[in-house]
Amino acid sequence: GENVEQHPSTLSVQEGDSAVIKCTYSDSASNYFPWYKQELGKGPQLIIDIRSNVGEKKDQRIAVTLNKTAKHFSLHITETQPEDSAVYFCAPGDGGTYKYIFGTGTRLKVLA
Amino acid sequence: DAGVIQSPRHEVTEMGQEVTLRCKPISGHNSLFWYRQTMMRGLELLIYFNNNVPIDDSGMPEDRFSAKMPNASFSTLKIQPSEPRDSAVYFCASSGTGTTQYFGPGTRLTVL
């Protein structure tokens, strides 16, 4: 089955700095690559996604880059703010199905 | 615009008791998912319904777990009898025609 790993598991940055989280997957059939943000006491919420025919996608301060050959994709957050503090999950899968394998999560702390 | 609604938000019960978790998906969504989140195992898909029909229950841990979706606006996840190792946060999510899954706030279950 799909093996999904996230690195790092925890990340602390100063407010205003950038943060990068990497997700490595094993299933070459994966063609849909979302990132979810989970705040304390809430369910995960999709923040950005990308499909395999695109190498990069940006939405204001967040971006996702995909290296399908190397089977990894990354979440980039620029100009971090305290409200970016949360746990972030990648969940690669086949966009034509319902089954996404969630990574182990990265706890991001933005220090004011 | 109400999102996915789950009840109760917190449940504390004793080992051996029956537990019923409830979910109301977003109106118009035809797919519903139940997930379990623990520190040890992360976020796991338990069961997937499409148009009220269970499509994939391969993630249901054992026969003590059962899920139903009697109509498009309601689903239950039942554990009988409950055990301490069932303690976790249980999420319900729904999706429409797209790939995005919208998560509810979760039910934190503690089995003593």
Category from helices, strands and their pairing of chain B? mainly beta
Shape of chain B: globular
The coarse silhouette of chain A is globular
Class per helix and strand makeup of chain A: mainly beta
Number of strands of chain B: 11
Q: Separation of termini of chain A?
A: 41 Å
Question: Which consecutive residue ranges of chain A, at least 5 long each, have pLDDT under 50?
Answer: none
Largest sheet of chain A: 5 strands, antiparallel
Quickly count the helices of chain A. 0
State Rg of chain B.
13 Å
Number of strands of chain A: 10
* Greatest contact between two chains: A-B, 18 and 22 residues
Which residues of chain B sit in consecutive blocks of at least 5 with pLDDT less than 50? none
Strand order of the largest sheet of chain A: 1-3-8-7-6
What does this structure look like?
The complex is a heterodimer of chains A (112) and B (112). Chain A has a five-stranded antiparallel β-sheet with strand order 1-3-8-7-6, with no helix packed on it. In chain A, strands 2-10-9-4-5 form a five-stranded mixed β-sheet, with no helix packed on it. In chain A, a hairpin with a 2-residue loop joins strand 6 and strand 7 (62-67). In chain A, 0% of the residues lie in helices and 51% in strands. Chain A has strands spanning 4-7, 10-14, 19-25, 32-38, 45-51, 56-59, 62-67, 72-77, 86-90, 106-111. By secondary structure, chain A is mostly beta strands. With 112 residues, chain B is mainly beta. Chain B contains no helices and eleven strands. In chain B, the strands form two sheets. In chain B, strands 2, 4, 5, 6, 9, 10 and 11 form a seven-stranded mixed β-sheet that branches. In chain B, strands 1-3-8-7 form a four-stranded antiparallel β-sheet, with no helix packed on it. The termini of chain B are far apart. The A-B interface holds A 32, 34, 41-46, 49, 89, 95, 98-100, 102-105 and B 4, 31, 33, 42-45, 48, 50, 55-56, 91, 93, 95, 99-106.
